[in-house]
Amino acid sequence: MSDQLTVSVLGTGIMGAAMARNIARAGHTVRAWNRSRDKAEHLTADGVHVVDTPAEAVADADVVVTMLYDGPAALDVMRQAAESLRPGAAWLQSTTAGLDGLSDLADFATAHDLVLFDAPVLGTRQPAEAGELLVLAAGPSAYRDAVTPVLDAVGTRTVWTGEDGAAGSATRLKLVANSWVLAATNAAGEVLALSKALDVDPQNFFDAIAGGGLDLPYLRLKAGLVLEDRLTPAQFAVDTAVKDARLIVEAGRQHGVRLDVAEASAARLARAADQGHGAQDMAAAYFASFEEDADR
């Protein structure tokens, strides 16, 4: 395989757009498709070829990257692309699809002779745009050289979790990591809500924990988005967090584990979405503490 790859990116939301841009900047030919083409057009300024159909995007691609809403969405788009997929192409499946969703995608990969890499990422808008994502990946060692240039373009580190993309070891690790992210985000929101209710200056709380074991940069980051009214554009949207929280709860249920915090997080995020905060950063779960939006 030549040093310059032809890469298809299917889905150019917050994460997919940044990934497409960074892959193109690394010198590869990138064809991108998005359900709403107008939301992808800005990528042309970075040398990305925006096309009308998934089939157009994947034609002759060495590597196909899917970064879509969920497993069913990824499967639907790949079915639209099926006629143009090149047998033997590598498929970096980066959608947070959950365990059931990944199983369906793995069956599709087998049926179309694709080399599947289970490759979800950890990170939000800022690290995605900087090409500093953490990639969790599983796939055959014999084919990793084919996808390494793409992984290097989108992330600073790749953690390999197994040889079989279909086994879902990377997806399982992503769900574990996201369970912590969502719990911490919701806890940050509740700290601010309780501070407001008890007439406590949040800064006094931050001063009290400063430098100790309870002090987390992530807590300060998410709290800052609320306190400084920087919830838009979202680093990671409430609507997507709701979906991920439900995947986490379902994965636990399937394996005999009750996840009370994750279940509460899903309900809390869904309530914030119902209040109209679905497109805002998931830190907007703060508003779920109130019957109506509270003045910050």
Q: Structural class of the helices, strands and pairings?
A: alpha/beta
Overall average pLDDT = 96
The main pleated sheet reads as: 6 strands, parallel
Helix content: 40-55%
Poorly predicted runs = none
Query: Order of strands across the biggest sheet?
Result: 3-2-1-4-5-6
> Could you tell me how far the N terminus lies from the C terminus, measured between alpha carbons in angstroms?
55 Å
Beta fraction: 5-15%
List the total number of helices: 11
Sketch the topology as an H/E string, one letter per element: EHEEHEHEHEEHEHEHHHHH
Name the descriptors:
296 residues; alpha/beta; six-stranded parallel sheet; three-stranded mixed sheet; 48% helix; 14% strand
Element layout with pairings:
Blueprint: E1 6-10, H1 14-25, E2 29-33, E3 49-50, H2 54-58, E4 63-66, H3 71-81, E5 90-93, H4 98-111, E6 115-118, E7 121-122, H5 125-129, E8 133-138, H6 144-154, E9 155-162, H7 169-197, H8 202-209, H9 217-227, H10 238-254, H11 260-277
Parallel strand pairs: 1-2, 1-4, 2-3, 4-5, 5-6, 8-9
Antiparallel strand pairs: 7-8
Helix pairs in contact: 1-6, 3-4, 7-9, 7-10, 7-11, 10-11
